[in-house]
Amino acid sequence: MSIQQNFPAISPSLSLNFARSKTLDPRITFTRTSTATRVNGQGLIEVVGANTPRFDHSYDPVSGTVKSLGLLIEEQRENLIRYSGIVGTMGTKPTGFQFASSIVGQSCEVSTDFDIDGNGNCIKHIRGESGDNNVGYTTTIGTLVSGTTYTFSVYVYIPLSQKNNITSIRFGPDNGYSSVTFGFADLNITDRWQRVIGSFVSNGGGGVLCRATASNGAFFYTDAWQLEEGAFPTSYIPTTNSTATRTADNASMVGENFSSWYNQSEGTFVTQHRQQDMKDLSVNYGIYSLSNSPTNTERLRFFSGAGRTPVFNTIVDGSTIAYLNAGSSLGVNLSGREGDLLKITTSYSQEDAAMVVEKSDVAIDDEDIVTPSLLNNMIIGGGGAGLKELCGHISQFTYYPRRLTNTQLQNLTK
């Protein structure tokens, strides 16, 4: 079999490698009305301005390596914890942090020893020579809404010298919860920042607990505290004397910036994306969505559906025509694959629609296929038309203006 049969003989009309280039194609319009944060190439949290795209990174606290992830697209979220990065102080004790009256000999103080969020300081938690081993908790979030799911996250730094002095650290709600998964610090990770995460359903209480079982005089550090409504964490949202909101990201291509590369009658998309553990399995999170805005009666969509299963869908005159679900159409099970890079090809023509997930078999929908017409825009990783923002990363996005062969679809996912 020739190389041309195995791989496309034509060049893509659109090729966006966000993870490698860390730049935005000038044909893409990007908006976000607030500032936001990303993890930069040094593995530290960095604030970027409004309407500035975020090219994010992952930091491996064990190996100390940093990997480029691509373009980060997230929904709107609010951090309910004030002074999350310890911007304000009250003497030597961080503003917003206090101790239960029963705790004796414990302290927390502002420290410049380490820094994760760019403001030059963090909290140092110290167990005294006597008293309770509960270190302290924030009381700045007020009353939470009963029955609502919240996610708490915090970065923790355990010095190597303290590895044998601390037997456990856990973070979570202080009270008022009906079910909770506490976040625990991995005590094998030392001299590195690690993010600890836990979700819970509130019963209307308030407060987030930081609790350690430690030897007398033991200490560790925390920074970038966050409590947000939702079943999974998003990027850190810095706060000072009030809560703060990060608005949603939007990346789109419209008009000639869209029509210059898109073929209405046939084409193939190759995408690489990462998505977090979406515990709200009833929501559809967009990977890309094309439509005939503003009516949206014609659509071509690729999204993460219920159970994080990829779905490729075409809509003509308001009615679903092609619908390929990787779970039912291909038997692909992505359970336990949260955060993994997924490489997927999707293709359409007047004869059929097709999808391949990571070298799987080819799923075909060829029943009464008619391709959507008059499409005039594309949203990358975004919401709209029944989809939420991806809350994840687009690493690579490539488009061929032809319906490639099934063999080529499979080979492009290898």
Beta-strand portion reads 35-45%
Distance between the termini: 17 Å
CATH names the topology of the largest domain as Jelly Rolls
Mean pLDDT over the residues: 85
* Shape, principal axes of CA atoms: elongated
Question: In the CATH hierarchy, what is the class of the largest domain?
Answer: Mainly Beta
**Helix share, percent:** under 10%
Rg measurement, Å: 24 Å
Give the number of helices.
5
Tell me the CATH architecture of the largest domain: Sandwich
How many domain regions?
2
What is the strand tally? 32
Account of the protein in words:
The strands form seven sheets. Strands 1, 5, 6, 23, 28, 29, 30 and 32 form an eight-stranded antiparallel β-sheet that branches. A hairpin with a 5-residue loop joins strand 29 and strand 30. It is built from five helices and 32 strands. The protein has helices at residues 3-6, 18-21, 256-259, 326-330, 406-411, and strands spanning 14-17, 29-31, 36-39, 45-48, 55-59, 66-73, 77-79, 89-90, 93-94, 97-98, 106-111, 122-127, 134-138, 149-157, 166-173, 177-180, 183-184, 193-202, 208-214, 219-229, 244-246, 250-254, 267-275, 285-291, 299-304, 310-316, 319-325, 342-348, 353-357, 363-365, 377-380, 392-400. It folds into two domains: 3-75 and 249-411, Jelly Rolls (Sandwich), CATH 2.60.120; 79-246, Galactose-binding domain-like (Jelly Rolls), CATH 2.60.120. The relative contact order is 0.18.
